[in-house]
Write a structure and sequence with these properties.
This protein has 368 residues and is α/β, with parallel strands linked by helices. The chain contains 17 helices and twelve strands. The protein has an eight-stranded parallel β-barrel, surrounded by six helices. Strand 8 (189-192), helix 8 (200-208) and strand 9 form a beta-alpha-beta unit. Helix 8 crosses helix 11 (254-264).
Length: 368
């Protein structure tokens, strides 16, 4: 089993680097427009994009989303990502730690993150199937301790598990297990999807058991159905290959998911899934997110090294600050109240879901 997990992690890494794995459907960010403020009445250098997240002071509301671990080739990639996160003071999450929980020889592929990111926000990561049963809480604690994490991410991936050759589709009891983990841990817990989004119905269920933070990971970025499609194809598994192709674009687009959660719960949100620019991050904040995350674009920079990773991230942060300047938002709280228009397919989706957009549409530019 350990060798199979190691092989799977390497497959995921190589497929992400060499194949087209993104959704064909958009995340919805093109349906969101921030209203230009031609008279911002602030100086750009005064803009403060900082945030305190899970007790950590970050220079920007930006998370390097979970990507890899469990394969020795991931060490260099995670080192580059973590070093960039530390230098820029942004957050970073590790990939699923199941591999190291079952095979301690793989711990280095994860612990390198805390070694390189010694003071900034680091999030541990465990799958919902690993927290089922009596040992679930202990596994969660072990994942946190392994990397001295500030918070724990529990990922939900029913789509991926349905297509993965080794997939585990036993999800009965997950909600109760999440509740138990939250009650017994002394660090914040984030419930994260993996590319198919979180609906308002699921968000309400999560809120009812004490969940305070979700990472929506909506449709529009990496499709894990596509990743498993390639793996099934390599193994000549025609049934799973067909499933991967059919469900490649399954899910709730990121922007729709973000608004569904924020319109129906008090849960705080990390927006991810097709976030590709600092402008996307600005739009996410204006829609109510606390922070936003990127994965695939950073993976392709991290293999080149720390310098390229930092250059990419510095551009993202500068794009965010430019969007803040152009909306007259001197800090993130002001950006959360920036005037915004939601149109296109996202508007239609939300209308069909009976979500009122007046709270967004009635905002005005306050300093003009």
């Amino acid at each position: 089993m350990n060798e199979k997990i190691k092989s799977r992690k390497l497959d995921h890494l190589m497929i992400g680097l060499t194949k087209k794995v993104e959704s064909h459907k958009p995340s919805g960010f093109n349906d969101v427009t921030l209203i230009h403020n031609a008279l911002p009445e602030i100086n750009k250098e005064e803009i403060d994009s900082s945030i305190n997240l899970f007790g950590c002071n970050l220079n920007a509301p930006l998370i390097i989303e979970p990507m890899t671990g469990g394969a020795f080739k991931a060490i260099k990639i995670n080192a580059s990502l973590a070093e960039a996160a530390e230098k820029l003071k942004i957050g970073i999450g590790v990939g699923s730690q199941r591999a190291a929980l079952e095979n301690p020889s793989l711990k280095k592929t994860y612990t390198i993150v805390r070694e390189k990111a010694s003071t900034t926000l680091v999030l541990a990561n465990i799958g919902c199937s690993q927290i089922l049963g009596e040992e679930g809480v202990e596994k969660a604690k072990e994942a946190i301790e392994m990397i001295n994490a500030n918070a724990l991410t529990i990922h939900l991936n029913p789509l991926q598990e349905s297509i993965q050759p080794e997939g585990e589709t036993r999800f009965k009891g997950v909600l109760n297990s999440i509740s138990q983990v939250i009650k017994k841990l002394n660090v914040p817990v984030v419930i994260k999807e993996t590319g198919a989004g979180i609906s308002m119905e699921v968000a309400k269920k999560l809120e009812s058991v004490g969940v305070e933070f979700v990472d929506i990971a909506g449709l529009g970025g990496t499709s894990w159905a596509s990743v498993e499609y390639y793996r099934a194809k390599l193994r000549s598994n025609k049934t799973l290959e067909a499933l991967g192709k059919t469900f490649w674009d399954w899910g709730i687009p990121t922007v729709a998911s973000l608004i569904e959660v924020k319109s129906n719960t008090k849960i705080k949100v990390i927006a991810s899934g097709g976030v590709r620019t600092g402008l996307d991050i600005a739009k996410s904040i204006a829609l109510g997110a606390e922070a936003a995350g990127l994965a695939l674009p950073l993976l392709k920079q991290a293999v080149k090294g720390v310098k390229q990773t930092m250059q990419f991230l510095e551009t993202i942060i500068e794009e965010l600050k430019t969007a803040m300047f152009l909306t007259g938002s001197k800090n993130l709280n002001e950006l959360k109240n920036a005037p915004i228009i939601i149109s296109g397919k996202t508007s239609i989706w939300l209308s069909k879901r009976c979500i009122n957009l007046n709270s967004y549409n009635t905002r005005i530019i306050k300093n003009v």
